[in-house]
Amino acid sequence: MSERTDFSMDRTFLIDLTRCTGCRGCQVACKQWNQMEAEKTRFFKGEGYQNPPAMSEHTLTRMKFRDYEKHGHNEFAFYKEMCMHCIRPACASVCPVSAFVKTPEGPVVYNPKRCIGCRYCMVACPFGVPKYQWSKALPLVVKCTGCYSRVKEGLVPACAKACPSAITYGSRKDMIDEAERRLKQWPDKYVGKVYGLEEAGGTSVLYLSELPFDELGFKKLTTRPLPTFTWAALRFVPGVFVFMSGALTFISWLTQRKERLLKERSRNSQGTQREEGGL
To answer: Cis peptide leading into 52, omega within 30 of 0?
Structure first.
């Protein structure tokens, strides 16, 4: 099957940070739709005022805050952090068992039944999106799915549905056209750039901002699709080594899971004995 070359109809987020009020409606909607557990967190003041302090196995998207001074007044900038659903995702390119797939609709989805727990995806992702379920005895990788179950039924993602002002969702071509229209209509309102248009070869999440993106913490990335770096390296690796690497990773994964299960059962057994001894 030939590689896709036209991504213009991929469903894409356009997030206008000048219209974001920081209400966290997207964050709450994501948590509710995906039935994510609450997590113990704390107020965090470091790179901003966000809470929780980072995305995790329980939080697939979050609002980041940055305070700055404008015309002598303190202002807030808000930034929705989420999976960028890259046009050519690095996570999919390094996965030895094809647990990550770029769907025809646009979202990059993850199949836990294929995953062997190697976590190469976590290393490869330039945005640090995939997270590991460290709290579970049988952990898997967790990431935003772009609400693929909704998108394939013709609905918009939960975060876009809940957002009152900042998120527009549609085909990548339409979102690019809309972003360029806003830049042309209000040149003094925005920095003259659409983030995600070319970064890492292009993404299915586009941003507009009035502040330089690097000041908000957005990463500076090559415009070359990241999988091309992977493929260039793998061309020189004999197939047998790739197979052996996958096999050894799978064996290691099984061993580690077995050890974690035994430790957990031992802790549970000890706790039961203590409870019985106290009766």
So the answer is: yes
CA separation for the pair 43, 148 (Å, rounded): 31
Beta bridge partners of 66: 77
Number of other CB atoms surrounding residue 214 within 10 Å:
10
* Nearest by Cα to 85 from 133, 140, 151, 38: 151
Q: What is the pLDDT of residue 241?
A: 43
Displacement of CA 251 from its chain's centroid (Å): 28
What's the half-sphere exposure (Cβ side, CA atoms, 13 Å) at 14?
A: 22
Q: How far apart are CA 182 and CA 225, in angstroms?
A: 26
Give one DSSP letter per residue of 49-113, joined into a string.
S-SSSS-BTTBS-EEEEEEEEETTEEEEEEEEE----BSS-HHHHH-TT--EEE-TTS-EEE-TT
* DSSP designation for 6: -
Domain boundaries in the chain?
A: 11-226, 236-278
Nearest CA-CA partner of 218 in 242, 198, 188, 232: 198
**Residue with structure tokens 């260039």?**
232
In three-state secondary structure terms, 134 is coil
Residue among 77, 248, 72 at smallest CA distance from 64:
77
Burial class from Cβ neighbours inside 10 Å (0-12, 13-18, 19+) for residue 72 reads exposed
In total, the chain counts a number of residues equal to 279
pLDDT tens-digit profile of 169-224? Answer: 999 999 999 999 999 999 999 999 999 999 999 999 999 999 999 988 898 998 88
Query: Does 3.30.70.20 match the CATH number of domain 11-226?
Result: yes
Average pLDDT over residues 244-258: 56
Distance CA 236, CA 251 (A): 25
Structural contact between residues 225 and 200, judged by C-beta atoms closer than 8 angstroms: yes
Torsion-angle region of 215 (φ positive above 0: left; ψ -120 to 50: alpha; else: beta): alpha
